[in-house]
Design goal:
CATH class: Alpha Beta
Organism: Variovorax humicola
Number of helices: 10
CATH architecture: 3-Layer(bba) Sandwich
Protein name: GMC family oxidoreductase
Oligomer: single chain
Family: Belongs to the GMC oxidoreductase family.
Pfam family, one: GMC_oxred_C
Order of helices and strands: EHEHEEEEHEHEHEEEEHEEEHHEEEHEEH
Helix content: 10-25%
CATH topology: FAD/NAD(P)-binding domain
Radius of gyration: 22 Å
Number of domains: 1
InterPro entries: FAD/NAD-bd_sf (IPR036188), GMC_OxRdtase_N (IPR000172), GMC_OxRtase_C (IPR007867), P2Ox-like (IPR051473)
Distance between the termini: 26 Å
CATH superfamily: FAD/NAD(P)-binding domain
């Protein structure tokens, strides 16, 4: 063991959670190491190639997971910056009511151990760090804000501006989707049309690498080791403290010792790592005396809609500018349980549609659909289910079982959203549900709470069972809400990082 293998803080994962904690600890006296299993994503022409990204799956992990007898290749991406290298830039705050218990058609979405007020200043800081563009005061479900957005929203292109007016004519309240994009005078965004699900080769997308990890690495106390897979965590003889992370770095196994460990590998892989680290004292895995680690997996209920007009062509280059929450807490009549959020998808292209449409579909038809479609994302809350699990197979691979909930409400929302879209002048609406193959909104597998008997983490994401282990990614979510999770992960991670800097590492 050398001194280079000993750190004050070891952060496992360089996505939003790990990156935000590192950003908070940058410039302190603590010696911080970020471990990332993937490499730095190369900046290359293929970044913007639909053929490379969607047909060749150039950047998707080659690993396979199981779901019982079924084997599949999940939509996992392992790079510095995590999944934000491929996300669609959506940066929503959870609604204030999302932090309390909410009655849904299929059951109750549980309350969080913290309130919206606890996160509001950290939401503001996260929006600042990511350069989020938006407009307050238009979303009917918008939670209280201490200040308006720092940056004006990305303006609608003509097709979408017309749709927004037609939505307003229906009595709805569309609003600009809050987006982390460096757009505007002097900004890097070129409206390339390849933002959602593509890496940005010009750093215009506000991802975790660009906004969190790189700035943290400018400080001498923060280091990054990429292509370092953490196989397990090692405890001391008492089982109360983590003393080392056993890693495999480019085929070589070694141990990294630390005073404090922050696990931010993503909801699936964080749960799996804790289970792989089982000991005689912790036979069900670390941080798991409550038996909740690897349970309550949630992933949102999502359906893609392609709205088609037989004559109109959609030349929009950056479509992620419009969203609707009129049915977030009820239906259009203000009755019934929550339905969810509606927002625009990135612009579909012919290569993207090859996997979504039947194999016999002629290329010319796929091209026609891509040119004439306006593409939407219908999202509803997935409620936690104890038997929605992440487990580790004997060969080390992941087994994911997802007991989907709230699907009746989601199907109603898809029907309602389709009618809303048809009334904007698009007579044909095609639907394509998302499956567990796309766990991009994975959450809930190492939930936090106020009771060690029913949660793995306390309200500051410290493991109840261990003195120096924090889990800071979407695995801490007790519920999924019905908007994108990235900003909420960032806000809580900044809050936790501030706590570590000011109270734990003093």
């Amino acid at each position: 063991m050398t001194t280079r293998d000993v750190y004050d803080v070891v952060i496992i994962g360089s996505g939003v959670g790990g990156g935000a904690v590192a950003r908070q600890l940058a410039g302190t006296a603590a010696r911080v190491l970020i471990l990332e299993r993937g490499p730095v994503l190369p900046r290359e022409p293929e970044n913007w190639s639909p053929e490379s990204v969607f047909v060749d799956l150039r950047y998707r992990s080659a690993e396979t997971w199981t779901s019982g007898e079924r084997r599949f290749r999940p939509g996992q991406y392992y790079f510095v910056g995590g999944h934000t290298k491929f996300y669609g830039t959506a940066m929503f705050r959870f609604r204030e009511q999302d932090f309390g218990a909410l009655e849904h058609e299929d059951g109750v979405s549980p309350a969080w151990p913290i309130s919206y007020g606890d996160l509001e200043p950290w939401y503001a800081q996260a929006e600042h760090l990511f350069g989020v563009r938006g407009q307050a005061g238009l979303d009917p479900t918008e939670p209280p804000r201490g200040a308006p957005y720092e940056h004006a929203p990305i303006p609608h292109e003509p097709v979408l501006a017309d749709i927004a007016r037609r939505l307003e004519a229906q009595g709805l309240k569309p609003f600009p989707m809050p987006a982390a994009v460096d757009f505007g005078p002097g900004g890097r965004c070129q409206r390339c049309g390849t933002c959602d699900a593509f890496p940005c080769r010009i750093d215009a997308k506000g991802d975790a690498e660009t906004c969190l990890v790189r700035p943290a690495l400018l400080q001498p106390n923060v280091q990054l080791t990429s292509e370092a897979y953490v196989d397990r965590l090692i405890t001391d003889d008492t089982g109360r403290r983590i003393v080392a992370a056993e890693i495999i770095e480019r085929g070589v196994k070694r141990r990294i010792r630390g005073g404090l460990f922050v696990l931010s590998a993503g909801a699936v892989n964080s749960a799996a790592l804790l289970q792989r680290s089982a000991t005689a004292r912790h036979p069900r895995g670390l941080a798991n005396s409550s038996d909740v680690v690897g349970r309550h997996f949630m992933n949102h209920n999502c359906t893609g809609l392609m709205a088609l007009h037989p004559v109109k062509r959609n030349h929009t280059r950056f479509p992620k500018t419009l969203s609707i929450n009129d049915c977030y807490f009820s239906d259009l009549e203000g009755k019934g349980p929550p339905l969810g959020n509606l927002q625009l998808l990135g612009k579909l292209s012919e290569p993207i549609l090859r996997g979504a449409m039947p194999a016999w579909t002629p290329r010319v038809l796929r091209q026609w659909v891509a040119e004439h479609s306006v593409d939407w994302y219908v999202m509803s809350e997935d409620l936690p289910h104890r038997d929605s699990t992440v487990r580790v197979n004997t060969d080390g691979t992941i087994d994911l079982r997802w007991h989907r909930t709230n699907m009746g409400a989601h199907r109603k929302w898809v029907r309602t959203a389709s009618r809303i879209i048809q009334r904007t002048g698009y007579p044909i609406v095609l639907a394509k549900p998302f499956t567990m193959d796309t766990p991009s909104h994975q959450c809930g597998t190492v939930r936090f709470g106020n009771d060690p008997a029913t949660s793995a983490l306390d309200p500051l994401c410290k493991a109840w069972d261990h003195e120096n282990l924090y889990v800071v990614d979407a695995s801490f979510f007790p519920s999924s809400a019905a908007v994108n999770p990235a900003l909420t992960i960032a806000a809580q991670a900044l809050r936790v990082g501030h706590h570590l800097r000011t109270e734990v590492l003093q």
